[in-house]
C-alpha cells in the first residue's frame, strides 16, 4: 500500500473557505454555550460514569484519554470548577504531562443509554490537596492527583453521532473474541518474535490480575 497524499488544491486552509462549505449554524446552537454549570449540566455530570479527556502538549500534539468510575466520580467544586480523579493506569501519564505544559483541556461526558453528551472546555491544573483527594477516594484508596478544571465553556451536544453509530443497540454489539486479546495485539505491535499460546494466556491472566489489584 502506497502512502496517501492529499492534493494541495483540495486542502482547506482558512476558516472562510471552511464555512463556505456549510450553511449557517442554527441560532440555538450558537447560543447554547454557557460559561458556568446550570442545573442540567450538573445533573448530567452527576450521572456520568465515563468521560473522554482531550489534551495537547506545548507543541500542539494532541491526546484523548478515557476516564471512568462510578456515576458522580467527577466532583463539582462550584459552578465553574470540576475535579477529575486520576486513577491507577499504565503510568504513561500522557494527559498529565500535557496538562503541565498546556492547561487547555476538553471533556466529553457520556451516560450509558443517553445519545446526547455534555462537552466541557477549560483550563486544567494538577492538584495534590489531601482533603480533595480524600473526598474522591473509593474503598479507602485516594487518587494521587486530581485534575481541577476551571470551566470556560459548557454545552450539550446533540445525539446524531451516537444515533448514527447505534452505540447502545445490543444488536450492534460485536463479539470481542473476533479480535485477538489486548496483550496479543500489543505483542504483535512491538515485537515480531512469536509468542506461544501458553505465554499469551499467562500475559492475559497477569493483565486481569492487575485490573483486580489496581481498580480499587
Total number of distinct structural domains: 2
Cα gyration radius (Å): 21 Å
| Strand/helix succession | HHHEEEEHEEHEHHH
Low-confidence stretches: none
Number of helices: 8
Q: Can you identify the CATH class of the largest domain?
A: Mainly Beta
Shape: globular
Proportion of β residues?
25-35%
Largest sheet: 7 strands, antiparallel
Mean pLDDT value: 94
Task: Give the helix/strand class.
Answer: alpha+beta
CATH fourth-tier homologous superfamily of the largest domain: Electron Transport, Fmn-binding Protein, Chain A
CATH fold type of the largest domain: Pnp Oxidase, Chain A
Write up this protein.
The chain is an alpha+beta fold. The protein has eight helices and seven strands. The longest helix has 18 residues, at 197-214. The chain has two domains: 28-165, Electron Transport, Fmn-binding Protein, Chain A (Pnp Oxidase, Chain A, Roll), CATH 2.30.110.10; 174-214, no CATH class. A seven-stranded antiparallel beta sheet has the order 2-1-5-6-7-4-3, covered by helices on one side. A hairpin with a 2-residue loop joins strand 3 (75-78) and strand 4 (81-86).
Quick gist of this model?
With 216 residues, the protein is an alpha+beta fold. The protein contains 8 helices and 7 strands.
Write the topology of this structure:
Layout: H1 15-19, H2 27-31, H3 39-47, E1 50-56, E2 62-68, E3 75-78, E4 81-86, H4 94-101, E5 104-110, E6 117-127, H5 130-135, E7 145-157, H6 160-165, H7 182-190, H8 197-214
Antiparallel strand pairs: 1-2, 1-5, 3-4, 4-7, 5-6, 6-7
Amino acid at each position: 500500500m502506497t502512502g496517501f497524499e492529499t492534493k494541495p488544491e483540495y486542502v482547506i486552509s482558512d476558516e472562510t473557505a471552511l464555512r463556505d462549505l456549510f450553511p449557517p449554524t442554527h441560532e440555538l446552537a450558537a447560543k447554547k454555550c454557557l460559561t458556568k454549570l446550570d442545573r442540567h449540566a450538573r445533573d448530567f455530570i452527576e450521572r456520568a460514569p465515563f468521560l473522554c479527556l482531550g489534551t495537547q502538549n506545548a507543541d500542539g500534539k494532541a491526546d484523548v484519554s478515557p476516564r471512568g468510575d462510578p456515576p458522580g466520580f467527577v466532583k463539582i467544586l462550584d459552578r465553574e470548577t470540576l475535579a477529575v480523579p486520576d486513577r491507577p493506569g499504565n503510568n504513561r501519564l500522557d494527559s498529565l504531562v500535557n496538562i503541565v505544559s498546556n492547561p487547555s483541556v476538553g471533556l466529553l461526558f457520556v451516560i450509558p443509554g443517553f445519545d446526547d453528551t455534555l462537552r466541557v472546555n477549560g483550563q486544567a491544573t494538577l492538584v495534590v490537596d489531601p482533603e480533595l483527594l480524600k473526598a474522591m477516594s473509593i474503598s479507602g484508596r485516594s487518587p494521587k492527583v486530581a485534575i481541577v478544571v476551571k470551566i470556560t465553556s459548557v454545552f450539550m451536544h446533540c445525539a446524531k453521532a451516537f444515533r448514527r453509530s447505534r452505540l447502545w443497540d445490543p444488536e450492534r454489539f460485536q463479539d470481542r473474541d473476533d479480535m485477538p486479546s489486548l496483550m496479543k495485539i500489543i505483542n504483535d505491535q512491538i515485537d515480531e518474535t512469536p509468542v506461544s499460546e501458553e505465554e499469551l494466556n499467562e500475559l492475559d491472566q497477569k493483565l486481569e490480575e492487575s485490573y483486580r489489584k489496581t481498580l480499587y
